[in-house]
Q: What sequence folds into this?
């Protein structure tokens, strides 16, 4: 592997995003760190979109840089999800930062872009080191973002919890990785995967341990029970757009990498049977815990955190059932749906909570009277999160059901269905607030800024479109050979 | 030739001590230091494997370098957050920071 | 799609028999839509409709005499491979019934024109009458038992509507409900019976049922079961013991209604039903015995209750029950013609009596207690005379209609029944004569005891009536019975003495009186039992019993004895009026309180049902729904419990994470055995 | 052509709902007329489909299968079609919805939303009745939840929030269980076919399950469990004791028009589903559980009636009467006879009209008297004779008075249960007789209610109530006329149902 022989063009999107992020950073630096800087936000969105276009246009055939960096449909799809997600988060943030001028705005945007970069790197990596770097770029950016309202006690506390627990989780991941490296002498996932069948025969305990250590660490990152404890607090304390970022982008990127590792390194038949059951149990516990605790929540952000935990449980199901193109299709489809419905919901949540200055669920009271469009859109997002028809969430969820049933894990599908019904209660609690409660006396009609409106409209359109015509996406997905190793 | 098991055991012990520190110490700086300890356990593992592992090669040491670097970055961010927190709350006692709960 | 099947050729008048019920239906529809506009003229429309029906009935009858049974059906419904048909049929029996129904209905219409003239809702009244006539005629024309059942229910509905015509009277409302509900019990029996028949015969048609019975397609126990179930329907509709309790209360309806529905036609439908299902009954001796004894017991019981009642209409109601018992007794003792013959004669004289009573009530401004009457003989000439004719007819005095039919019933009990049944029949005949003349004498002879008719303070109902009303109200699950009130329909009364009513009211009396005199001759022995020949032609209903001459004398003697006793007690006072009541007060009370049947039903059926329901409701709320609520609260509680660990402590989180990891690791190792 | 019409039928109300979105909410009259027109068009479409319905065909007609989306290992199709089972229910749906839209003209609050939700609901209901693919069936089944939640939750009475959530969660669990069972059926079907040509199509699965060549995968126990799953799922919707407690709450709180739809159509989805999926795919299991179903039906009849007897709220009374009447459906289908099955379908349709009428009447009375407590009413015949008359007519229809449709279905169901083979239901006779008591109880509670509401002396405050408005005649006369037509000439309906029923019954080797 000689550096100069490598096809670096595969990394064009990452490189350009890094450059653009630095550019944004520099511009911010040159324009003074204080004050509102909507133009930087716009620039950031533009950069992300440009990168997204690059992802789409470049390297349709895929390829790899050694065994370090993979460009395959899986990576490209998740990169798109990440970039669009971050772009939408930034559009939400622009409103948020407009309301919170004390936050250093330029830094915020550039760090957000770096986080996106880390996530992109992560989903493309096929090597433990690259992966770790990507993960840490994402994580460290996230720590910073969580504590971005540095004069705000909740925000800093959230950041603290996040950084300490996140650091510990990283240590767990690394500890697990160190064994993998030691046993194979390689950090390449592909090579590890090739060695795995033999290795597993020789050192089942060590392989199992490294797997489980990594599971703990990654389980933490994607907040599945019992590694989820940090999530509600951090989500609640972070600035709302950051919460959106953590719930969606960070989690989906985490999922992508979990799938990547477990597919490449632990994907062979013999070992899949060993851990699929554990994953299934964890998925079940995650769905139950997330949904049940969410029932009792009154804080919107905390509620969404538990809802996100539950959603992570749903996403874990196909992964636990089977690995391959089918489950990837299902996961990616649900990820897209999840991205859109959650970000749409967070856009509305940001708007409402910032307007009312509180994050209690009653801040949604009478939203329908104050802004019908937002209320209707929010309803669609919630209904989609709950998994009711004519929305992307429904199709995504039902696909997961079917996959679970077809993969002989009907019990998991049953738990998922039942907990989904439980989730109706709190999702419809929002709806009740919006439609069936009078607005509080001082609440006036809500002004919806353009950025938020765009986010909401785009999400709404995608959620509904995928709910009615999921074949638009699925037809494309079905042609994909998601990862080379699936053959 | 020293057996690799010894290094692994040392790393394991270090990791556990670090974990214990993270979970029990009330001083946040010590908690941070404990995390460093855990990461260093990883480093020992990597270096040991790199030197005398079954498939000894240089990659492990490269990995170690990356881990050290990232650990430094993480520590920097963590300390920054700690300072921000201290400014807000005048305390770096772990137990004091429970505004966000339930 | 809906093509008719002409079963038999020969399209004559009978082909148009379907029009007979349609005329009243049309009047019903007209009145329903335009009743409010027509107001005063509604009566004419009703009368015209019925008159047409009557004329057509006469024509149909004339054609049927000497003709054959005519059937016309349409596909009504497809059930699997079976086709259920509906249509109409003219048989001997229903040709006779058509005449009875249309005639009585016509005169009642005429009578009502005057009787109801001051009621605001006269159009509704006539509409209901039209609907009733339609239903009753439809019942009669039905070619299958399902269609009969359909119209059977419809007449029940009309009865409900007409009994509750003065819906604002709580007791009328309660009585209407009671009437419907109790007959409904019988109806369910009938329904089950016909369902069983259908399942075994594959058709509802009479003809096919007869064939099936003849061909022994049904097992003997099944025939008995079905016959008894069908009889249950008759028991309910014809107010036989133990389901007779609704009929006395049904007297809350306007008097013409009582005459039409609760004397002449609807209540006789039960008898008619047994008549059309007679082959089935004949095939089961058990069923026949049950029928006979039920009829006999009812006849006697009802007569005893009639002895002590003071409400003119209730006496007639008990009398009706008793007479229906007679008919059923006759049918139960193989007296097919006797029963149906009595049905016809009874229809005429009982309608006459009711209308007579109506005339009296009208004249005394809606009082019904016979103790407040008396001395009307001179004041209401036509009413008195016709009422006397009616009374004589029901008592069975030669040569009035009742004599002929009653004599045949006695004959049939004597010949086919046992001595006990005959004895009961005889005693009942005696009692009938007695209570009818008690009524007659107390109403028409002596002094008028009603006082000033215009005195508003006059309380016209006694405690007894009020008590009964309470009973009826309570049977209807209605504990919150309100104080009894009187709702006079007459706002202005010009004179304060009873006097004869207008011609429109007396004319029907005269018509019916004539019939009460002559109707009996159609089956008189010396004229050759014409009716019997007509009715039994082509039917296998066994040989009809005929009594010896001495029976006729005996029956008249019994009647005369009854009348004499009444005369002795109520006119001459040879025997004190309270002679029996003072001698045997408990029996008197028993009679007066209808054998406490209402109370028993209340205690045995109504209250327990209500208690059980309340209990179930509690259970529904606490247990059935409670479990759901519990699941809900358990869910949210477990959510709370799970959330408890979220105590905000960083290190707790770490601990949970690490321990969780260890549990997962431990589980994995335990389950999968990595150390294997 | 006809098949396209089915697609149009299902999506027409949705399109209507979208159109309604564009109309400013102040134009109340435009909104009302548009909603009426849309549902009226749906009605006309159904009538046309009804006219073109081939009564001689027992299987699916006008079927269409369009590919919808592909999961790689499974093709999900948009498979729709109708047979003698769904045709009457389609007509019922459009009829009752259209009439309930007329009934809802008195709603002044948030009119636009009301009709949007109603139309979405209509789409969902129509979809359920035409869907032949289990996925699609589930989709439409779930689609009805949200509009109903809103309709009860916004326009409901005092406890609307509780009622709407109870409805949502309870029936949500029901559809959840339903889909679980569907999944299991799908899996078992796929296993039986060795994952060749797997499908969610009910028709296809019915064939697979009927194939005796697949015994080892489809053991009796598995099939029994599957059937019980379906039974529970649809029992919640129907509802069957002990899963009925959501219904009284929902009804009492729901506005009149919504109650009409709820009782008139939504419950029918349960009965329909049970026949379509339960009896369609697993007829042998259905036969095996016939006794259970019959007993459940019996319990429903008696229990519903007894509870109705002691209700103090008129609407709750009618709600419990619905429970009682749905028992007849169960009784009918359990009998596995032509008449019983036909009676069940007939009852679904007939009860649709009658209960809608009853709820409408109760609503009309409530609107005037502002009370639903039975003891507070009385003598209403005096001030509102026409409404009282219709209420009485509705009660009579519900009692099962001949000449009205309820009688026919009761009769058929009774013929069915008394004719049930002793192998299927050992105690059919006893069950039938006890069910007969239910009929008496029905008369008891309804007449008691009528006696205390429309009869008796009138209260002073109710003396000057306005009688029926012209707009109210439409649903009143319409529903009563429908009930009357079916009662007087049931051939219209039995003709359509019959061949399909014969087909269903024949599946258990009958």
A:
């Amino acid at each position: 592997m000689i550096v100069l022989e490598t096809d670096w063009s595969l990394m064009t999107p990452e490189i350009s995003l890094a450059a653009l992020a630095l550019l944004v950073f520099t511009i911010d630096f040159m324009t003074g760190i204080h004050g509102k800087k909507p133009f930087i936000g716009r620039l950031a969105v533009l950069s992300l979109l440009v990168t997204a276009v690059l992802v789409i246009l470049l390297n349709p055939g895929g390829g790899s840089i050694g065994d370090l960096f993979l460009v395959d449909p899986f990576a490209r799809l998740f990169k798109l999800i990440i970039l669009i997600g971050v772009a939408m988060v930034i559009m939400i943030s622009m409103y948020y930062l407009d309301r919170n001028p004390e936050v250093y705005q330029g830094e915020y945007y550039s760090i957000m872009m770096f986080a996106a970069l880390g996530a992109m790197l992560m989903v493309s990596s096929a090597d433990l080191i690259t992966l770790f770097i990507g993960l840490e770029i994402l994580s460290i950016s996230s720590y910073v973002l969580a504590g971005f309202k540095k004069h705000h006690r909740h925000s800093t506390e959230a950041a603290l919890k996040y950084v300490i627990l996140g650091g510990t989780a990283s240590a767990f991941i690394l500890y697990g990785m160190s064994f993998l490296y030691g046993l194979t002498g390689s950090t390449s996932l592909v090579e590890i995967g090739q060695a795995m069948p033999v290795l597993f025969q020789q050192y089942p305990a060590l392989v199992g341990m490294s797997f489980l250590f990594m599971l703990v660490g990654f389980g933490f990152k994607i907040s599945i029970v019992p590694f989820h404890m940090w999530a509600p607090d951090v989500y609640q304390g972070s600035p709302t757009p950051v919460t959106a970022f953590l719930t969606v982008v960070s989690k989906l990127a985490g999922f992508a990498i979990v799938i990547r590792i477990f597919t490449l390194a632990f994907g062979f038949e013999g070992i899949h049977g060993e851990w699929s059951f554990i994953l299934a149990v964890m998925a079940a516990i995650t769905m139950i815990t997330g949904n049940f605790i969410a029932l009792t929540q009154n804080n919107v952000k905390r509620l969404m955190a538990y809802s996100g935990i539950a959603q992570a449980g749903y996403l874990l199901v196909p992964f636990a059932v089977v690995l391959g193109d089918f489950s990837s299709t299902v996961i990616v489809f649900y990820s897209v749906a999840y991205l859109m419905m959650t970000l749409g919901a967070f856009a509305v949540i940001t708007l409402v909570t910032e307007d009312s200055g509180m994050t209690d669920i009653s801040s949604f009271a009478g939203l329908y009277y104050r802004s019908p469009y937002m209320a209707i859109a929010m309803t669609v997002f919630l209904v989609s999160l709950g998994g009711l028809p004519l929305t992307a969430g429904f199709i995504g969820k039902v696909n997961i059901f079917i996959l679970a049933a077809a993969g002989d894990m009907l019990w998991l599908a049953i738990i998922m269905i039942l907990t989904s019904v439980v989730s109706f209660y709190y999702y419809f609690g929002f709806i009740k607030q919006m439609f069936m409660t009078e607005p509080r006396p001082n609440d006036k009609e809500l002004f919806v800024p353009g950025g938020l409106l765009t986010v909401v409209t785009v999400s709404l359109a995608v959620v509904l479109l995928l709910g009615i015509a999921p074949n638009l996406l699925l037809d494309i997905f079905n042609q994909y050979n998601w990862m080379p190793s699936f053959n | 030739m020293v057996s690799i098991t010894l290094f692994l055991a040392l790393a394991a012990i270090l990791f556990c001590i670090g974990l214990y520190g993270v979970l029990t110490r009330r001083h946040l700086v010590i908690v941070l230091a404990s995390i460093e300890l855990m990461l260093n356990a990883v480093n020992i593992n990597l270096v040991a494997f790199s030197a005398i592992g079954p498939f000894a090669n240089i990659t492990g040491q490269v990995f170690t370098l990356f881990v050290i670097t990232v650990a430094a970055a993480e520590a920097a961010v963590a300390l920054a957050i700690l300072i921000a927190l201290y400014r807000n709350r005048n305390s770096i006692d772990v137990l004091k920071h429970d505004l966000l709960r339930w | 799609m809906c093509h008719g099947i002409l079963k038999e050729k020969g399209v004559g008048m009978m082909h148009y028999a379907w029009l007979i019920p349609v005329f009243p239906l049309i009047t019903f529809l007209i009145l329903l839509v335009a009743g409010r506009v027509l107001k005063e003229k509604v009566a004419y429309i009703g009368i015209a409709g019925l008159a047409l029906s009557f004329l057509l009935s006469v024509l149909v009858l004339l054609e049927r005499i000497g003709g054959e049974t005519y059937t016309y059906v349409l596909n009504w419904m497809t059930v699997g491979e079976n086709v259920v048909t509906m249509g109409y049929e003219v048989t001997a029996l229903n040709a006779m019934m058509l005449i009875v129904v249309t005639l009585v209905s016509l005169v009642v219409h005429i009578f009502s024109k005057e009787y109801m003239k001051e009621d605001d809702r006269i159009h509704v009244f006539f509409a209901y009458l039209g609907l009733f006539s339609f239903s009753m005629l439809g019942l009669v024309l039905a070619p299958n038992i399902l269609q009969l059942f359909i119209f059977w229910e419809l007449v029940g509905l009309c009865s409900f509507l007409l009994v509750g015509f003065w819906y604002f009277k709580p007791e009328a409302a309660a009585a209407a409900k009671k009437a419907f509900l109790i007959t409904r019990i019988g109806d369910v029996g009938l329904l089950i019976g016909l369902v069983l028949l259908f399942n075994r015969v594959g058709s509802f048609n009479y003809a096919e049922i007869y064939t099936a019975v003849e061909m022994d397609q049904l097992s003997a126990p099944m025939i008995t079961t079905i016959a008894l179930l069908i009889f249950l329907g008759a028991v309910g509709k014809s107010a036989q013991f133990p389901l007779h309790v609704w009929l006395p209360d049904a007297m809350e309806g306007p008097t013409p209604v009582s005459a039409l529905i609760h004397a002449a036609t609807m209540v006789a439908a039960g008898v008619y039903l047994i008549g059309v299902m007679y082959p089935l009954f004949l095939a089961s001796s058990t069923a026949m015995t049950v029928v006979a004894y039920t009829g006999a017991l009812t006849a006697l019981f009802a007569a005893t209750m009639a002895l002590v009642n003071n409400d003119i209409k209730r006496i007639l109601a008990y009398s009706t029950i008793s007479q229906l018992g007679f008919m059923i007794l006759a049918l139960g003792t193989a007296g097919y013609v006797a029963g149906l013959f009595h049905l016809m004669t009874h229809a005429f004289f009982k309608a006459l009596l009711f209308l007579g009573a109506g005339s009296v009530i009208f004249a005394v401004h809606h009082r019904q207690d016979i103790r407040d009457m008396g001395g009307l003989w001179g004041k209401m000439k036509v009413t008195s005379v016709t009422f006397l004719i009616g009374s004589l007819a029901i008592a069975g005095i030669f040569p009035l209609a009742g004599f002929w039919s009653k004599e045949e019933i006695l004959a049939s009990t004597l010949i086919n029944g046992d001595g006990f049944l005959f004895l009961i029949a005889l005693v009942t005949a005696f009692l009938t004569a007695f209570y009818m003349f008690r009524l007659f004498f107390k109403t028409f002879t002596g002094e008028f005891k009603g006082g000033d008719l215009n005195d508003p303070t006059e309380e016209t109902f006694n405690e007894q009536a009020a008590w009964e009303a309470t009973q009826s109200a309570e049977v209807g699950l209605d504990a919150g019975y309100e104080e009894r009130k009187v709702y006079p329909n007459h706002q202005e009364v010009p004179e304060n003495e009873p006097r004869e009513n207008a011609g429109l009211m007396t004319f029907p009396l005269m018509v019916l009186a004539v019939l009460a005199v002559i109707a009996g001759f159609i089956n008189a022995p010396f004229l050759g039992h014409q009716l019997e020949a007509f009715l039994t032609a082509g039917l296998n209903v066994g040989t009809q019993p005929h009594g010896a001459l001495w029976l006729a004398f005996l029956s008249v003697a019994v009647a005369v004895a009854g009348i004499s006793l009444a005369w002795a007690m109520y006119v001459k006072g040879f025997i004190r009026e309270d002679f029996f009541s003072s001698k045997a007060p408990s029996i008197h009370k028993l009679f007066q309180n209808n054998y406490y049947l209402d109370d028993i039903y209340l205690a045995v059926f109504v209250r327990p049902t209500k208690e059980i329901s309340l209990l179930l409701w509690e259970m529904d709320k606490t247990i059935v729904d409670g479990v759901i609520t519990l699941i809900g609260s358990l869910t949210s509680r477990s959510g709370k419990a799970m959330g408890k660990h979220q105590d905000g402590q960083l290190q707790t989180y770490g601990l949970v994470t690490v321990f969780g990891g260890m549990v997962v690791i431990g589980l994995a190792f335990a389950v999968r055995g990595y150390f294997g | 052509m006809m098949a396209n019409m089915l697609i149009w039928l299902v999506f027409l109300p949705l399109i209507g709902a979208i159109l309604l979105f564009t109309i400013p909410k102040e134009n109340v009259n435009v909104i009302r007329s548009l909603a009426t027109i849309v549902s009226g068009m749906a009605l006309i479409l159904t009538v046309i489909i009804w006219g073109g319905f081939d009564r001689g065909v027992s299987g699916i007609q006008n079927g269409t299968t369009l590919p919808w989306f592909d999961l790689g290992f499974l093709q999900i199709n948009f498979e729709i079609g109708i047979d003698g089972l769904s045709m009457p229910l389609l007509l019922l749906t459009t009829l009752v919805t259209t009439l309930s839209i007329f009934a809802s003209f008195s709603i002044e609050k948030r009119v636009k939303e009301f009709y949007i939700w109603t139309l979405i609901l209509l789409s969902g209901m129509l979809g359920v009745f035409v869907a032949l693919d289990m996925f699609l069936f589930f989709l439409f089944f779930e689609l009805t939840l949200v509009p109903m939640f809103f309709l009860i939750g916004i326009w409901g009475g005092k406890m609307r929030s509780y009622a709407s959530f109870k409805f949502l969660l309870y029936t949500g669990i029901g559809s959840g269980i339903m889909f679980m069972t569907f999944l299991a059926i799908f899996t078992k079907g796929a296993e039986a076919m060795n994952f060749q040509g797997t499908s969610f199509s009910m028709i296809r699965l019915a064939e697979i399950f009927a194939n005796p060549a697949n015994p080892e995968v489809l053991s009796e126990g598995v099939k029994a469990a599957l059937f019980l799953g379906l039974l529970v799922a649809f029992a919640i919707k129907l509802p069957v004791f002990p899963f009925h407690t959501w219904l009284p709450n929902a009804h009492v709180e729901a506005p009149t028009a919504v109650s009409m739809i709820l009782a008139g159509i939504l419950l029918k989805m349960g009965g329909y589903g049970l026949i379509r999926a339960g009896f369609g795919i697993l007829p042998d299991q259905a036969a095996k559980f016939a006794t259970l179903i019959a007993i459940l039906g019996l319990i429903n009849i008696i229990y519903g009636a007894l509870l109705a007897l002691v209700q103090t709220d008129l609407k709750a009374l009618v709600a419990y009467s619905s429970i009682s009447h749905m028992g007849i459906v169960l009784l009918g289908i359990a009998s596995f006879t032509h008449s019983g099955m036909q009676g069940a379908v007939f009852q679904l349709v007939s009860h649709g009209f009658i209960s809608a009428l009853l709820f409408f009447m109760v609503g009309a009375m409530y609107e005037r008297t502002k009370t639903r407590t039975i003891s507070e009413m009385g003598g209403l015949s005096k001030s509102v004779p026409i409404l009282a008359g219709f209420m009485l007519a509705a009660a009579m229809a519900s009692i099962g008075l001949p000449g009205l449709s309820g009688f026919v279905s009761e009769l058929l169901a009774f013929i069915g249960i008394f004719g049930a083979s002793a192998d299927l239901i050992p105690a059919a006779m006893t069950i039938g007789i006890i069910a007969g008591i239910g009929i008496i109880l029905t008369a008891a509670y309804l007449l008691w209610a009528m006696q205390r509401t429309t009869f008796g002396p009138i209260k002073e405050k109710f003396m000057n109530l306005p009688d029926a408005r012209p707009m109210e005649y439409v649903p009143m006369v319409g529903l009563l006329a429908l009930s009357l037509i079916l009662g007087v000439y049931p051939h219209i309906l039995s003709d359509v149902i019959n061949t399909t029923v014969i087909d269903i019954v024949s599946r258990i080797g009958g």
